[in-house]
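Q: I'm writing a short explainer about LRC43 protein for a general audience and would like to include a description of its predicted shape. Could you first generate the structure from this sequence?
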Amino acid sequence: PGSVSAAFQEYLRHLGLQDFPCGLGSWNKSCHNARRSLRAEPAGLEEAVPPGEETPEALLELLRDQHSPWALPPDCSPQERLLREVAVLAPELLRGSGVFQVVKSLRILDKGVEEVDEGLLRFQQLEELILSANHISRVTSAHLPRTLKVLELCYNAVGDLQGLCARPPPELQHLGLGYNRLCGPSQEKQLTVDFWPNLVSLDLSFNSLTDLLGLVSQLSTLQNLRILLLQGNPLALIPTYRGFLVDSLPKLCILDDIHIWPDERQQFQGLARQPELTRSEARVVVSIGEMKGLPDPKAFQQLKVGSEGPVITYSYCVTYEF
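A: Of course. Here's the predicted structure. Afterward I'll give you a sentence or two in plain language.
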């Protein structure tokens, strides 16, 4: 599927919300008929379950027992368990567009999704959206529910924040953009309080951000920011990288998964007022001792001027991967 909506429909088919023991069928038909007639008839003694049908408790046991063939795997999300149990106890809630009102957390990982389409707006209660390990290169904020509090886009191909920042969800608390293709300084201008007034956690790790001073000037406007990940960016090679960030963002509690203790903050006090220290260059020296399997140019005799013999030229390309 190319869109989030298409991937969600495939996800629903995988959950089998209309198949035994979920949904409404011959295995629980009288139970739901009785619910619809409760208002019309006075309450009386509970009738026995007809032959061939199951009680809601028995159906739930089939979902929860780890030895049951209908049980979900242990690593499934709480949202998947919730949907299947709702499909047992109140399958009418999941009919038509009802399923979009129930879902508060949506996780679609490694499903080849390329587009965050406007179909997401049907999820009017959605608070958490996890779309890691897909092929998303651009996100349009107009397609994101306004109720969103967590947006995780790790391991995608996002290289531009302009569409995401046009009208982002106002209550967003975590934004995960690690392992993408962000590069500065133009992208860093989108990371201010004007766009993310309630952001608590920001993951920008393993991108191509280079302007530490520019980034810090933007992040310092995020008054609620407490968790920041920047490791894996070129700017993290600057010798005073951690100290400069710790002193520049006094409300930060965790930087690159390491807690900031008071003694560390005291140690780096004053670095924020010395931006010239962040302009140091990082240099990598590579020495090649020996290369095997390549013809030695010295082994070929130089041709005399005017010779009509063939000329053999060798070209070599050396690639360094860090």
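A: For your explainer, you could say: Residues 18-93 form one domain.
Q: Perfect, that's easy to follow.
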